[in-house]
UniProtKB/TrEMBL annotation:
GO terms for biological process: tetrahydrobiopterin biosynthetic process. It comes from Novosphingobium pentaromativorans US6-1. Its EC number is 4.2.1.96. This is Putative pterin-4-alpha-carbinolamine dehydratase. InterPro entries: PCD_sf (IPR036428), Pterin_deHydtase (IPR001533).
């Protein structure tokens, strides 16, 4: 299914609303790194995100070691960023530990 890809001014606008996230160098994905108290907290967070991701059929790429989780969001069906990444990033921000 084709999904609209975000670019230009619209992309700039949504990125301004996601200050915890960095645009990958190729401009096709956003990333955020999170640190938790321990593995249990990190994995609990990942479980909550996984349930939401499956519900909305939009899945993160991520990497976890102990208390550290690095998340990359992109939309394969759009070959870049879409509103789905923005929505999942906002959901993740709602669960992220205070920095
Ligand atoms: C068939 C299924 O709906 C698609 O493959 C979904 C699944 N999860 C997905 N996740 C992400 N990140 N991008 C997608 O384009 C995507 N597409």
């Amino acid at each position: 299914m084709a999904i609209e890809r975000l670019s230009g001014a619209k992309l700039d606008e949504v990125l301004a609303g996601l200050p915890g996230w960095s645009l990958r160098e190729d401009g096709l994905a956003i990333t955020r790194e999170l640190k938790f108290a321990d593995f249990n907290e990190a994995f609990g967070f990942m479980t909550r995100v996984a349930i939401q991701a499956d519900k909305v059929d939009h899945h993160p790429e991520w990497f976890n070691v102990y208390n550290r989780v690095v998340i990359t969001l992109t939309t394969h069906d759009a070959d870049g960023l879409s509103q789905r990444d923005v929505d999942l990033a906002s959901f993740i921000d709602g669960l992220a530990p205070a920095t």
